[in-house]
Every structure is written in C-alpha cells, then in structure tokens.
C-alpha cells in the first residue's frame, strides 16, 4: 500500500510538472508570437519607408535629368573644357537669345566615345530655381 501512495504521489507530481511545463510553454509561445508580430510590423514599416525613399530617388533623378541641356551637331574643335564651355555659352546667348554667364553652368561634357560621328554635348545649369525654369520655358515657347 505504501507503494500505491508513493506511485499516486509521483503521478500527481508528474501531472503538476506537466501543467507547469504547459504554462511555461504557453508563456514562451505567447512571447514568441508577440516578438514575431513586432518584427512583422517593423518589417512592413521598413518596406513602406523603402518604397517612399525609392520614389523620392526617382523624382530626384528625374529632376536632375530634366535640367540637362543637350546640344547636337557641334563640331569637336574645342580642345579643353573652357573652350567647350565658351562655345556652348555663345550658342545659348546668341542662338537662343538667353542671357547666360559662365558661373551658371554646372558642367559640360561630350557624350559617348570619340569616333568619326559627331557626339552631342551635355550640360547642366548650376542653379536653376523652379520658378525661373518655368518662366524661361514659357519665354522660349513664346519665341518659337
């Protein structure tokens, strides 16, 4: 009979131990689920932020390209940057009748590799405010 009492006690202890283990398991699972929810939320927020940044970069690239000036059929007689710049400025000032000074040009360069074909020239104004750009575009459109 003593064996039955000890076996009963052992069974009760095992049941209590199982219940405690189940409680710990449930606590761990709930903490794990909370952590996963938090990480999922953060991941979604990061994904949205990444998309937003991508859109901003695309807009910036578009704006950067929008302000470019490309001149075609310009002979490559200029041997250095300053000669090319003065040639382009004379085309802008005389041909387009737009007042432009040296300081207003950010950069000018030939596009593509040097070959037998005439390469276009790429240039960008140094600083062009949106209002000024829109106004200049309207003036050019009116002249044409």
Task: Explain how this protein is built.
- This protein is 65% helix and 10% strand.
- The protein has 144 residues and is mainly alpha-helical.
- The protein has a three-stranded antiparallel β-sheet with strand order 1-3-2, with helices on one face.
- The mean pLDDT is 79.
Topology overview:
Blueprint: H1 2-66, E1 69-71, H2 81-95, E2 105-110, E3 121-125, H3 130-143
Antiparallel strand pairs: 1-3, 2-3
Can you give me a brief rundown of this structure?
The protein has 144 residues and is mainly α. It is built from 3 helices and 3 strands; from the N terminus they run αβαββα.
For the record, the CATH architecture of the largest domain stands as 2-Layer Sandwich
User: What Rg do the Cα atoms give?
Assistant: 37 Å
Q: What is the CATH level 1 assignment of the largest domain? A: Alpha Beta
Largest sheet data: 3 strands, antiparallel
Query: How far do the termini sit from each other?
Result: 114 Å
Q: Which key phrases capture this entry?
A:
2 domains, three-stranded antiparallel sheet, mainly alpha, Alpha-Beta Plaits, 144 residues
């Amino acid at each position: 009979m003593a064996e039955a009492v000890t076996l009963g006690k052992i069974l009760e202890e095992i049941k209590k131990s199982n219940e405690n283990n189940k409680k710990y398991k449930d606590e761990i699972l709930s903490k794990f689920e909370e952590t996963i929810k938090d990480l999922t939320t953060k991941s979604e927020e990061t994904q949205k932020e990444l998309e937003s940044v991508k859109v901003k970069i695309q807009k910036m690239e578009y704006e950067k390209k929008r302000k470019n000036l490309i001149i075609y059929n310009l002979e490559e007689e200029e041997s250095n940057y300053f000669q090319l710049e003065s040639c382009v400025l004379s085309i802008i000032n005389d041909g387009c009748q737009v007042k432009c000074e040296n300081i207003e040009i950010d950069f000018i360069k030939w596009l593509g590799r040097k070959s037998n074909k005439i390469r276009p020239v790429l240039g960008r104004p140094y600083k062009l405010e949106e209002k000024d750009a829109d106004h200049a575009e309207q003036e050019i459109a009116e002249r044409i």
